[in-house]
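sanity check this record:
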Amino acid sequence: MKPQDRIITFQDKLIEENLDVALLMYSRNILYYTGTAQPSYLAVQPENFRLFVRSGLDFALQEVFIDRGKIEEDRRLDNISKKLFSDKKSGPQQIGAELDVWTVEQFEHFRRAFPGVDFVNISPFILEQRKTKDSSEIDKIRKACEAIHKGHEAVLTTLQEGIAELELAAAVENAHRLAGHEGIFFIRQPDFFMSRGPIASGPNLLRNSGVVYTITGVGLSPAVPAGPSRRKIERGDIVIVDIPTLVDGYHADQTRTYCLGQAAKPAKSMYDDLKTIADHLIKQIKPGMKCSDIYRMALEKATALGREKQFQSFGKGKISRLIGHGIGLELNEPPIPSEYDHSPVKENFVIALDLHMLDEALGVVKLEDMILIGKDGNEIMTKSPRELFEI
C-alpha cells in the first residue's frame, strides 16, 4: 500500500461502520495519514477528506503527501462543523474520534462544536491499520535501526571501570542523535515519563521501577525513577542498555547486554539460553499465529531449558506475561505478544521481541530485537550483534 492509499482504507472502514465522518487530531495519526505532524484536525468522510491546519500551514504544505487542495488553515471547530455539513439538512449522528487519547477538556470542546452527536472510538481500527507496515514505513524503521546500532558502538568504546551509568547513557544518546535520532519517543499512555531510555548496571538491575514494565534502571531521583543513575560501573558488572531511537517518525528498540570484564559462567549460560529462546521464536513465528501462542511457545521453550522461574522474572515471584510489543509510529503499539493478546500476527508486522532473565543470585541478562514478519521467514531488523559482550 502506498501512503496516499491509507485514507482510502480508512474511508472503507467508515462506510462499514456507517459513520458520516471521523475527526482526528492526535499527531501520530495525522502524520500517518497525511505526512505532517503540524497541529491539525483531519476530517475524513466516506467520499472526501480535508486537513484543517491549526498552525504551521507553511510547514504542512511542504511536508504532506496528500493533495494540497485538501488543505486549509482553520483552528475553530465550529467553523469546521459548518464547512463539513453546510450542505446537509442535519449534521452527523455519530463521529469517529480518538477517544483513547483525548482529554476530558478536548472532548467537551468537540461536544460543544457538534451538539447532540455521539462520539465513537475509532482508535482500535486506526491501530489495527497501522500494524501492517508499508515499504516506506519499513525503510524508515531500518534507518532507526541504523541509528540505534550507533549507540551500541558507543557502548563498546565508552564502557570502562569508574564511568557512571549517566555518562554511558549520554554517550549512547549522543551517538543516536548524530545518527539522526529525533530526541524523543512516543508511548500511547497519559502522564508517561521516563529518561531517554532504560540503562542499569550491577545491583541496579535488580531494582525495577513501576514506571515501565521492563528492566528499568533507578533514575536520578524519585521524580523520574527510571533510567541511568550516577552509580559508577565496576569491573565484573553486567550492564544492560535499552535506549530507543526515533528517525523520520518511526522507532527502533533494541537491548544488548554487556559485561565489564569476563562474565561469570552462570550469567553466560543464562544468556545463551535466552538467545536460544529468542532464536526459536524468530524461526517459528508465522503469519496467522496468535500473539498468545507466541507467548506460550516462548514459555514452553524456557521450561524445556529449565529457566521458567528466571524467564521474564522481576524477582520476588513477579513474572511478566509479555514478551514484546509492536513498534512503528509509537514505541509500544499493538500487537502485544503476551498471554492476553489473542489477535493474529500478519505479514509486514514489526514486533520487538523483548526478553530477559533474572535470577536474584546470578543477575540479569536481556536481549531485544525487532522482527519483520514475512510469509517466507522473519527478518531481524536490528543490526547489532546478538552476543553477550565482554569489554
